[in-house]
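Feature request disguised as a bug report, sorry. It would help if multi-protein outputs had a clear separator. Right now it looks like this:
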Amino acid sequence: MRAIFLDKDGTLVENIPYNIDPELIELSWHAASALQIFQQLGYALFVVTNQPGIAKGLFTESALDPVRLRLAEHLAQYGVILDGFYYCPHSPDGAISRYAIRCTCRKPMPGMLLQAAREHGIDLLRSWMIGDILHDVEAGRRAGCRTVLIDNGNETEWKTSELRTPHFTAPDLYVAAQLIAAEDGTASKRGKATLRDNATP
């Protein structure tokens, strides 16, 4: 199995900091169309999201359930089904002691992607991580995925390194889907060419 890992806030849905009101959950521009493309290409779809509001005591883990359900309802209207929803509740500067830790799941660490890979048999080398900040890019690269940065203004620090350099940059999720579809087409052509070469006497 290969997968598309999606950051939630600012990538898949409109960015409203620490939002847990399901009524405020709105898909980003043409996000549903992008996910339709991914499903047509045979990718499984996973949300991987940092939720430091839990560690800060702003809401509980259970408060994410209605948000997840609302997101699923939005996507179901377009025939899109998420294969998994992973979140990190931790933050080193949190107010709730059990969550105020340095963990391996909070992006830019790759823990959520690695967990999804273990639980669903995902080939990370054939998968993609898409997000709107360089922490997302770094998490994807650490996991062995290819990466796309949605350059929509949400990255403000631009602390760059090899791990924080995206394979591609796109203005929105729909363009990212088109880029990945093009890459799939190129890879398919390369594979067919190799098969023809190997079959040549």
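(second protein starts here, but nothing in the output says so)
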Amino acid sequence: MTWTRWTAAASCLVALILAALALSCAGTQTAQAPAPAAMTHEQKVARGEYLTTIMGCNDCHTPGTFYGAPDFTRKLSGTELGWIGPWGTSYPRNLTPDMETGIGKWSEDDIVKTIRTGQRADGTPVLPPMPWPMYTNLSDDDAYSIAAYLKTLPAISHHVPDKLPPGTKPGKHDIVIPPPSAWDAPKPAAHDSTAAK
């Protein structure tokens, strides 16, 4: 019986030592893994172009896209196709680095903040249909790649119409978002005094 107990105890001790060594080696390998190299400016710009393409930025911000013929010589310079909803009428902004009509005065940090928070550099909100909530979880690499790419676009002077208040009569180039069905209607916020009534 004594021999069996010693064999079991020795086996457990060997198993613990092997487990400790395995964990030690795994920790060492993880600690020694090299950090990924930072992207070069050219890589960031290429990544930003890719992301703005797959994320649908051209759909709204490049003239002609909704008519089946995007004009990439004016890529991301904004359109005059208005979107009407409860917020009023909004127009896709000029995202080129034009200093007067685009985002030329914005820093990369301003661009990233706008993409992630839905607030422009001046603090005004980004209006629908801009799907900024989809982009709140972009990694820093991706968000700053988009910003770097936008700063490299040719600056195009194009003043997009200013937003219009709710109740404004639709123009001939506007898309009207119908009122929401009961299923899609926004729920009142818990702190909203009308919610309790």
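Even a blank line would do. Unrelated, but nice: Residues 180 and 186 are 8 Å apart (CA to CA).
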